[in-house]
Amino acid sequence: QVQLVESGGGLVQAGGSLTLSCAVSGIILGSNVMGWYRQAPGKQRDWVGSVYGDGSTTYADSVKGRFTISRDNAKNTVALQMNSLKAEDTAVYYCNFPLRPRSWGQGTQVTVSS
To answer: How far is CA 78 from each of CA 14, 17, 40, 94, rounded to the nearest angstrom?
Structure first.
């Protein structure tokens, strides 16, 4: 059974930074593509970015240049480094496999105060 556990969220002032972590169990991260998503209050869940098996990344335009996704296959984890945070980044953040989504984890809340 695949489990995705996100952590690292919190309250931060605009312009600040946070690093989120996604712990994957029940499956070897290996070369699987992993994505980060977020859902703001009253809105649909949106894709934030993805990291591929070779470490390359793609990002939504709204976070490009501010967010960085990385993976640690040895620890079976994926990280989301968020810099220059804005109020509009406030959301619950989730990780999942874009090509074969599993059950969503509980997510981690990120609140950016302006």
So the answer is: 24, 17, 21, 11
